Amino acid sequence: MRVLVSGAGIAGPSLAYWLHRYGFEATVVERAPALRPGGQAVDFKGRTHLTVLERMGVLDAVRARRTGTTDLAFVDEAGRELAVMSGEFSGGDVEILRGDLAEILYDRTADAVEYVFGDTITALTDTGDEVRVEFERGQARTFDLVLGADGIHSRVRKLAFGPEADFVHHLGRYYCVAGASRWTDTSLPRERARGFAHNTPGKLAVDGGSKAQQMYMFTSPPLDYAREDTAAARRIIETTFADMGWHAPRMLAELAECDDIYLDSISQVRMHGEYTRGRVALVGDSAYGNTLAGFGTGLAVVGAYVLAGELATAAGDHVAAFAAYDRVMRRYAKIAGNSNAGPFLAPKTAAGIRARNWFLGSRLFTLMMKYGDKAANDIDLVDYPSLIRA
After folding, report:
1. What's the helix, strand, coil split of the chain in %, to 5?
2. What is the Cα–Cα distance from 65 to 96, expressed in whole angstroms?
3. pLDDT tens-digit map of 44-79
4. From CA 121, how far away is CA 152, in angstroms rounded?
5. Which residues does 68 contact at the CB level (< 8 Å), separation at least 6?
6. Of 57-66, 92-101, 177-186, 336-345, which one has max mean pLDDT?
7. In what order do the strands lie in the sheet with 261-269?
8. Are 389 and 20 spatial neighbours (Cβ–Cβ below 8 Å)?
9. What's the CA gap between 238 and 256, in Å, rounded?
10. 172: Cβ contacts below 8 Å, ≥ 6 apart
11. Measured in Å, how far apart are the chain's first and last C-alpha atoms?
12. What is the mean pLDDT of residues 34-50?
């Protein structure tokens, strides 16, 4: 079967790996002209995530390029510590830059999978027997299946399911990451590092955390700007945080030197458990994305494992495979829908900030960490059929 995968981030190459191993002919199309380096750090939590990475043969490579453990200290304007969020909570069992993870997955698949960079899907026509796909640059082609692994703003979801506004729900805040984390040099000892964060009502600035060199969060209704326009993103952050003290003036000055700036809303994808339609399926953030919820990368690799495994089990019968995939991931993906990091990290009031700081030092926070660990493993991970290709 000929399978087109849209997106060469995390879910896409993960799908390509398993599809090839099970004997499918996979093509991955990616809008960017090449793999995107750097980016914010992502993490994996618990036995389930690590088992899938191990079965893919990439766990050792991921560990070799992991970031260090970084605690995040919340401080007042004078720099006095108010509370600490442990690195185990924010970084899981293993944390790695998104670009490094994408490179590892690409290297595992590049020799066996067709990658098409610098192009994107513009139209899908599902005839019932195949899918005719039109591209922005390349010639139209037909595939047996099309799998959308193209993120929270998925083009495939828009073409096959409907407008983004029907499925992506703004949760009232924006976040911005800029620059790679300072704690990613694998030549340094794995000592515990510390980043620093400061709140004012409705705003958060993070200096040197594990996810990026800088991170910002702020309350806002939907904004009208182009996500690819880094200059616009920089202006929004500079304007929004111009009145913040602490390290913010120095951070904003450094922001001008950062090329890799990404600003987006904190949003949640709500597909109501139906991630497939006809010969099209969604995987990863396009299907069950929830910005900064802490489980997106794990859900992407597990979802890819389940979808490819169900297709192999059903011998390519996409109707049976898609139904099984929907059933399994409908339950497991609830973990993404049950959290919203925005109110926790950037409370709207001074009282909310004080309550959050108290919570971080309480037994309730420990219980929340245990719940997250349990939820990350709340799936019966099937050992799918023996591999067809070595």
Report:
1. 35, 25, 40
2. 6
3. 988 999 999 999 999 999 999 888 778 899 999 999
4. 16
5. 183, 184, 188, 190, 191, 192, 193, 210
6. 57-66
7. 81-85, 70-75, 193-200, 203-207, 214-219, 168-178, 261-269
8. yes
9. 9
10. 219, 220, 221, 266, 342
11. 18
12. 86
Residue type, 79: G
In the prediction, which pLDDT does 213 show? 85
Give me the residue spans of the domains in the chain. Answer: 2-389
Q: Are 128 and 35 in contact (CB under 8 A)?
A: no
Dist CA 357 CA 362 (whole Å): 9
Give phi and psi for 51, each to the nearest 5: -65, -45
Residue 372 has pLDDT above 80, yes or no: no
CA distance 101 to 47: 18
CB 203 within 8 A of CB 218: yes
Question: Which three-class secondary structure state does DSSP give residue 385?
Answer: coil
pLDDT in tens, 231-271: 999 999 999 999 999 999 999 999 988 878 999 999 999 99
CATH architecture group of domain 2-389: 3-Layer(bba) Sandwich (3.50)
Q: From CA 285, how far away is CA 299, in angstroms rounded?
A: 8
Beta strand 25-30 with 114-117 is: parallel
In a 13 Å sphere around the CA of 189, the CA atoms on its Cβ side amount to 2
Which candidate, 99, 87, 253, 268, places its Cα nearest to that of 167?
Answer: 268
- Mean pLDDT is lowest, of 92-106, 234-248, 277-291, 306-320, for 92-106
Strand order in the sheet with 131-135: 121-126, 131-135, 141-143
